[in-house]
Write a structure and sequence with these properties.
71% of the residues lie in helices and 0% in strands. By secondary structure, the protein is mostly helical. The model is unreliable at 193-248 (pLDDT under 50).
């Protein structure tokens, strides 16, 4: 049989790049770049500017408990694609910031809610549905994307700031999730599917294909996470035989 790269690794690539274009690397890691320019432009103190981070964190606290159930219901891929689009919009609209602290605070509060779809929890859910045996390795690679993004996004913001000012820098940051994160997620983030001969990486599902739309009436991501238990419940003997055969 021809050796094929397990499709789950494509998902890891999408998750790694996606996390590098998400909220923490793009919005928070680059926040300090804007402190002096905003203070100079509007006369705000550093304390007033830094308070936006507090609103950002409060938004995270409020939205994250809701993300899990909503992802289970509507699917992680849909959340990720929508999250990148909304995150880019909330960043880009700061180009029109006109000296209102309320606008600034509301923007950073709304930003974390808009970006909830591209939080580490959502990407972790996608990765874990594809991997069983090498789940830790896959998660480690995926989560590293956030650190890489945290190193690169401030550099991009600083470069844009030096070339065109802080408004241009916000547009440059908005381009990261829109032009990098969103296309990569659309191309690489998929729900779990069965590939003959490669069950040792993912869930044993008795030779049945788990793919978008094939099990009607069930959310694709819920199919992925629940596939193993559902099949074992209905075809326990066959699933056990497959496990013994391939050495899962």
């Amino acid at each position: 049989m021809e050796n094929r790269i397990y499709a789950g690794w494509r998902v890891v690539v999408g998750a790694t790049v996606g996390l590098g274009c998400s909220n923490v690397p793009v919005a928070l890691a680059s926040f300090s770049i804007f402190v002096i320019p905003l203070s100079t432009e509007f006369g705000w103190s550093r304390v007033e500017i830094s308070a936006a981070v507090t609103f950002h964190v409060v938004g995270t606290i409020l939205i994250m408990p809701l993300v899990g159930p909503l992802v289970d219901r509507w699917g992680a891929r849909r959340f990720i694609l929508g999250g990148f689009a909304l995150f880019a919009i909330t960043l880009a609209q700061l180009y029109w910031l006109a000296g209102s602290l309320l606008h600034f605070y509301v923007s950073y509060f709304a930003m974390t809610i808009a970006a909830a779809g591209v939080s580490p929890a959502v990407f972790a859910k996608v990765i874990t549905t594809w991997f069983s045996r090498r789940r830790g390795l896959a998660l480690g690679i995926g989560m590293a994307g956030s650190s890489v993004g945290s190193a690169l996004a401030p550099m991009a913001a600083a470069l844009a700031l030096s070339e065109g000012g802080w408004r241009t820098a916000y547009l440059a940051l908005a381009a990261i999730p829109l032009l990098v994160g969103l296309p990569f997620a659309a191309a690489f983030i998929r729900t779990i599917e069965f590939i003959p001969g490669q069950l040792e990486y993912g869930f044993v599902e008795s030779g049945r294909r788990i793919a978008n739309g094939e099990l009607r009436g069930v959310d694709p991501d819920r199919k992925a996470t629940g596939a193993c238990s559902d099949v074992v419940a209905t075809d326990r003997a066959l699933a056990a035989f497959v496990e013994l055969t391939i050495g899962v």
